[in-house]
Amino acid sequence: MAGINQIKSVKKPAKSRKTTVNAPADLWLEEMIDASLEGVMQAPKAGVFYPSALGNPCDRYLWLCYNGLMIDQTLPAKLERIFQNGNSLEDRVDKWLSKLNILIDRELSVKQDIPPISGRIDFIINHATYNHMPVELKSINTNGFSKLRSPKPEHSVQLQIYLNMGNYDIGTVLYENKNDQKIKSFLVERNIQAWDDILNRCFTIQEMLARPENCGGATWCACRKVEI
User: Fold this and answer.
1) In this predicted model, what pLDDT tens digit does every residue of 133-168 receive, in sequence order?
2) Residue 194 lies in a domain
3) How large is the average pLDDT for residues 128-134?
4) Hey, which residues does 77 pair with through a beta bridge?
5) What was the pLDDT predicted at 92?
C-alpha cells in the first residue's frame, strides 16, 4: 500500500469562465425615439380647480394653477412613455370590466361652477354590493405598492371629489403594480366633512390676493420651478 505521502491529489481542470460581452447600443434608434416623444406639458387652465391639483397639499401650487401662473414644462421622453403606459392600463382595465359586463361608463366628465371644479372619472361600474360607483385607476411601482394599506391621500381626495360631485355613496381606488401587474383596491366612502374641507380650500385660494411664499408639498412639487 502506497504511503500517504505518495498519494498526490489530482487537480480537476478549472471551469472555463463565461465572459459577458456587452453588445453595442443602438444609440441612433434610442435618440430617434426619445426625440419623437419629447414635448411640452402645458400649464393648467386658469380659473378652474382640477381634482389632481386639489390632491396636492401645496397651497402655493394650487394658487399658481388657479391663477394661470404655472409655467409650461418640458415633457421628457421617459415621462411621455409613463403617460402612454397609463393610457394602456386604462384600455386593459376597460376590457376587463367590459368582459365582466359591469362597465357603465368611462372618462365621465363632472363639473360644477361654485367653486369651479372640473374632473373626469376613470370608470363607472355596476358593483355587486354597491351598485353604480366610480373607480379611480392608478399605477404604482413595487416599492409603493408594498406599502399600500389604504389609498394614498392625494388619490382619496380625487375620489372624494368624484363621490360628492357625482352623488355616489362609495367608490374604489384600484392600483396596479407596474412591475408585476398585481392589483389592490380600496373602498372610499363619501365624507361630507372631507368635501367641505375641499370646498373651503378652494374658496380660500380664490380669495388670496398674493401667492403663498413657501411650498407645502413634496420636494418634487411643480411649484418649485416657478420663480415669481
Assistant:
1) 999 999 999 999 999 999 999 999 999 999 999 999
2) yes
3) 97
4) none
5) 95
pLDDT digits (tens, 9 = 90+) for 167-178: 999 999 999 999
Task: Give the count of beta carbons closer than 10 Å to the beta carbon of residue 161.
Answer: 26
**Domain interval for residue 52:** 45-225
Inside any domain, residue 200: yes
Q: Kindly provide the b/e burial profile for residues 51-68, where b requires at least 16 CB atoms within 10 angstroms of the residue's own CB.
A: bbbbbbbbbbbbbbbbee
Tell me, what amino acid is at 82?
A: I
- What's the pTM? 0.84
The residue among 226, 225, 220, 228 whose CA lies nearest residue 56 is: 220
Total domains present in the chain: 1
The three three-digit cell numbers of residue 10, written as one number:
489530482
Angle at 23 between CA 18 and CA 24, to 5 degrees: 150
pLDDT of 59: 96
pLDDT tens for each residue of 61-99: 999 999 999 888 888 888 888 888 888 899 999 999 999
Among residues 66, 154, 76, which one has the least CA distance to residue 117? 66
Using CA atoms, how far apart are residues 45 and 167, in angstroms rounded to an integer? 26
Residue 17 burial (10 A CB sphere; 0-12, 13-18, 19+): exposed
Radius of gyration of the chain from Cα atoms? 26
Task: Read off the CATH number of the domain in which 123 is found.
Answer: 3.90.320.10
CB 47 within 8 A of CB 63: no
